[in-house]
Amino acid sequence: MIAETGHFALILLLMLGCCQAVIFSPLGALMRRPSLHVTGAGSAIAAKTGPWQTISAFLFSPLPTGPAPATSPASSLSGIPIWPLPILICLLAIGAQGSLIYSFIISDFTLPLVTHYSHSSTPVLYRIAASISPDRGATLLWITLTSLATILFLLQNAVFKKSENPHAIIGIMGLIIALLAASVLFDGDPFARMANPPLDGQGFDPQSQDILDIFYSPILHAGLAGLSIIFAATIAALPRARLHRSWAEMLRPWALLSWTLLGAAMMISAYRAYAEQSWGNWWYWDASENAVLLPWLLATAFLHCLAVLEKTEALKPWTALLALSAFGAGWFGTFLARSDLLGPLPASLRASGDNAVLLIGFCLLFAGAYYLFSRAAGYLRENADFTLVSRESAMFINSVLLAVAAAIVMIGTVYPLFLRWLGGTIITVGPPFFVQALMPVTLAMLLLMGLSPTLRWRVDGAASVGRRMKLALILSIIVTLFVWMRHIDAPPLPLLGIGLAAWVVTAALGDLWEKLWRHRDHGESKYRNVKMLGPRYLGMSLAHIGMALLIAGGSASSLWEEQAVLSARTGQSIEIGPYNLQYEGVSLLPGENFATRKAKFIVYRNAQPVSELYPEVRYYPIRGVETKESAIWHGRDGDLHVSIGDRAEDSGRIVDVRFLPMMPWVWAGMLLILLGGVINMLTRMILLFKKNGVPAP
Amino acid sequence: MSLSRAKSRKRQRLYLIGAALLAAGGAAALGLTAFRDSVVFFFSPTELAEQSPMDPDRRLRIGGLVEEGSLQKLENGSTVTFTVTDMQHDVQVSYTGILPDLFREGQGVVAEGHMNPKGQFVAQEVLAKHDENYMPREVADALKKSGHWEEIEKQNAKNMRN
Lengths: 697, 162
Description:
heterodimer; A: about 700 residues; alpha+beta; six-stranded antiparallel beta sheet; about 65% helix; B: about 160 residues; CATH 2.40.50.140; 7 strands; elongated
């Protein structure tokens, strides 16, 4: 009964999403010729959607307004109450989501989805995870979060009144929600029951059974929901060519939010791949990893261009293009990660559909969006009067580089599929391709990243830039030379990476120093100077330094990684890097729904015990699968990564020990990037409320 | 007014087109050079037998089913050998390290490495980042080519039901 309620809620949601899309008329905006006259614009929208307008006004307005639309068409659109439909949709989405989660919790095996991803012995926490991470459940979660984002946008609009035409944005959000709901319903209905249910399910995927993994799906889809608001706001602004300062201000929190969330999702997936022994490295350029990296790269580029637009009203078409593409990449990546293009599904799963509707929705939505963009791009007026040496131009070039990086990732992910589809050879595009192709782009990006925060807006002199950057340049050359002299046979590219990372860090710190201590204008107190920096500068510096640490750590750990694979006996000691590991044997322990063989290692450094590590081999009887969970020690000069395997032939146990120097820098860098985003958002929020006071309810 | 607007529009379009071209061209150039050096081709055991002897320096991927009863552990403890088959031809694989979670006899496997002159495949990596019900795409294609896909599929479906 609960499942049927959810099913009904989902169908209702699809219909209401369509209603919202039609009533608030993004279709009208699509068809209309872009016009620059603001007074004409409103009436043009109303004129185009005239019949719908009257019908919907008749159906949905609380008061019978009579022939109002005919007399003042512009005001009729804003006459429709904007709140009821999104709230209704949000409630329905939460209802559908709740009923799916409930079906998982009570293990209702008449639902094929539950049978496939859950089992009566699966712990409740992972039953909930199973309801939101695989295909349909995840799309349903995407819908729920998108509808929540719509509500959040309406709140923002009610408090700050930044958006010019919230109606059009709500309409496009309705369209997105309707397309996603159609994908859930028609690609494979999660609420459909089967006639002969099995006695028990097939269990949750053991490799995903981890506390961090639970957060991955919600965080990723919340990021995508944020991108969809950006997409909708861009589409709404394009036909009137109204991409100006207040548009950018309105979108800024959304860009920050989705950028931070996508980054967090990537960090989770990186750490999980690192801790799960069989998944290889922390970043493997796997298709599902690239599916998140693509929108993140484009969102990063968008965030920077938005800052330029907000400051100087330049780069409008490019910013709009990035806004559309970021959401497009997110949607396409999701489709790619879920489709059977990367690995054919077994026959029993194939019945559940092939994500065709998700793909059709993608094509329709983005064909329309790019068509609109191509029509409207020429009409975007802006003052692009910045010179080559200026902060605008540095940020613009960097955003182009980010787009190039995204294009390379796209090519590497899609090209093998394309080749296979042509019926030709099967190739693999692995880490070597991505590293080689992305390296030059990344290095150029780092070079500009150090430079651009110190540049002035609009116009700057090359000579004065040189004077300002002198110290950073010298320091980073010293660091590079130092590393090179200690490791004379190191390959040049990672060395260059380390040097450029040093450049970014010294440039950022130097700029901070300059602003804090040498600023003459407001030099009354140092505390005042800190306050003058502002959230944006603080967040940006943190994120830039984090990125530099990430690159430096990644380069160094790939350069100086040490690995030992051996068969160890109890009491044996293994030497690796500066550490000494003592193997203390394996004990068999029961877990919640698995049995685990837990090994104990004591970590020594200079004959002093510093930590104990417990790598495991878990056996999940439901699926008959073993997973190997590595244990990791984050030391001050590197990560110690230990995993165990089977019993070896000589009655020892296979042990895989790796020492990755400077790997903690990678994790610290990722955390700093996230912290930069969070600090930027939080301080902005605090400042806004301080200024405006808490809004009355 | 209209003249300057047209001019600025032209200029904008110019820089937009320039940026797009630069992005596309740069990505294509970097991608193509990287493709030339670092793309790894996939071979089924049959294709490997047809094209032997292979250049031992060439990195390649092979895939098929792990033959039942072929998994052997060597004396030094950490090296294993097994046979990969597409039901027509076989290839011996040796690998040093911990086998991935989903590695099992009778199941699909993909390995990356190179052929040694003795005709044995030395794997640097054995890949299995997939659900245990999913067959690696390459392996499924290789089995389809050798004409043994149907029976394997049937067997898998039976295993899943149990």
